[in-house]
Every structure is written in structure tokens, then in C-alpha cells.
Amino acid sequence: MPEGHTVHRLAAEHHRVFGGTAVAATSPQGRFAGGAARIDGRVLTRADAHGKHLLLDFDDDRTLHVHLGIYGKYTFGPAPAPPPVGAVRLRLAAAGGHADLRGPNACELLEPGDVERLRDRLGPDPLRADADPARAYARIARSRAPVAVLLMDQAVVAGPGNIYRAEVLFRQGVHPEIPGRDLGVDRWTALWDDLAALMADGVRDGRIDTVRPEHTPEAMGRPPRVDGHGGEVYVYRRAGQPCLICGTEIRTQVLATRNLFWCPHCQR
Description:
This protein is α+β, with helices and mostly antiparallel strands. It has two domains: about 120 residues, N-terminal domain of MutM-like DNA repair proteins; about 130 residues, Helicase, Ruva Protein, domain 3, CATH 1.10.8.50. About 30% of the residues lie in helices and about 20% in strands. It has eight helices and ten strands. The strands form three sheets. The chain has a four-stranded antiparallel sheet. Strands 2-3-4-8 form a four-stranded antiparallel sheet, with helices on both faces. A hairpin with a 2-residue loop joins β6 and β7. α1 crosses α7. The radius of gyration is 20 Å and the shape is globular.
């Protein structure tokens, strides 16, 4: 599933291509035909993201809500748009280009009150200027759940996924099974600040890189990492390999149905 930085990049791309212009909206697949008809010809006034949720506002006070889920994907292209290929749930088109949405978990129109209810269900997003980390800590400090579980709970913190979760815990030397109530506000503040910086880098670069300059392949004289997500990381999907800092074998286990990775020496 795409992590929050990807959705913020999608919001920025929608603003660049469609912002302030009337869009042609269709549902070639047919599953969103009614919704597409209601926004067809409307002006995109705002493109926003909160965690893993894309929110596109139109000039009739409706908001298009998209959650990509595991299989959802956006593709952007030039204008005029070619004939759609595959199961395109929604196509937006304008003079600046077109965007095709395939396989999302959610694609729906929301009224203003529905948008507020959605935001209320989500925790603070480290990429948003209005985020309040104290709101997340208030929930963490009351919880017996492991901090690794809480960081993946979108009602606690909106946006991080499995990669950012594993990497920020490693970078801050936090064992993933520490209960939230034992974390402490100082360690939480350090986690939040590091997470916000890492995710901002992801928005800028379009990939997740979490290693510090002294641990890059060039600095360490090691081969670049080859993996589907395409970034340099400390522990994610490195089970059985030596830690880049201490040499201890990286461990993995399943926690709350997701694969967790950590270093038993650096994260005591």
C-alpha cells in the first residue's frame, strides 16, 4: 500500500495538472459513472492529502475522496487523452493532461460534513502544517499496545506505513515492542520529528531513503540495495543481513499481521 508521502505527491500533481480548471470526468469502467457525472465540468479548487487519503475539492462543495489501498494506482499523461486501457475507475482530463485511476479501495464523493468526519477519524499527518503531535501522543501514552503497532494505526498517526514505521524506530533506537505508555514524551517527540523529516524527503524525492549520509553505499563502499521500493534503508526487508551500524543480524517477525524488521542490538 502506498505510504503517505506518495499520496501527498499525488495531490501536488493533481493541483499542477488540473488546479483552477474545469475537468472532464468519466468512468470508463462504469463503476463510478454517477459520481463522475456529478463532477464533470466542475473546477478543481483544491487538491489535498491527509495520511493515505486523497481529497479533491470541486466548486460545488463536493470532495472526491480516493484511498488507493493495496491495488490502487494513478497514471498521468498528456492531453489529448488516448482511449482508456484496462479497468479505469475514473478519468479526469483537461487541457493540461489527464489522470487515470485504477483499482482503488475507495473512490467516492463526500459532502463537507462527511469530509470532517473522515478527518476526525484520522490521526495527525506529519506532512501537514496543521498536524498536532501532542494529539497522537495523548493516545500513545494511554496504550499498552506496542509502539510498532501504534505507528501503523492511522487513527493515531496518519500516513506512515510499514517502511517508515520500521525505519524511524531503528533510527531512534526504539525497540518495536515497547508499550506506548512506556515510550515517554521526549522519545515520542524525537520519533515524530524524524518521521516528519523522512516523509518530507519522500515527497521531494519520490522514494523512501532513510540512511544517514555516512551510511550510504558510496560512504560505506557497499553495493546499492536492490529492492522493489527502490530506497536505501537500515532494516526494512533486510532480515538476516548485517546491521549497517553494528553488524548484528537484522531480525523479522509478524506483528499485527505485518512483517516487522529491527536490529536487536541498536534497538534494545
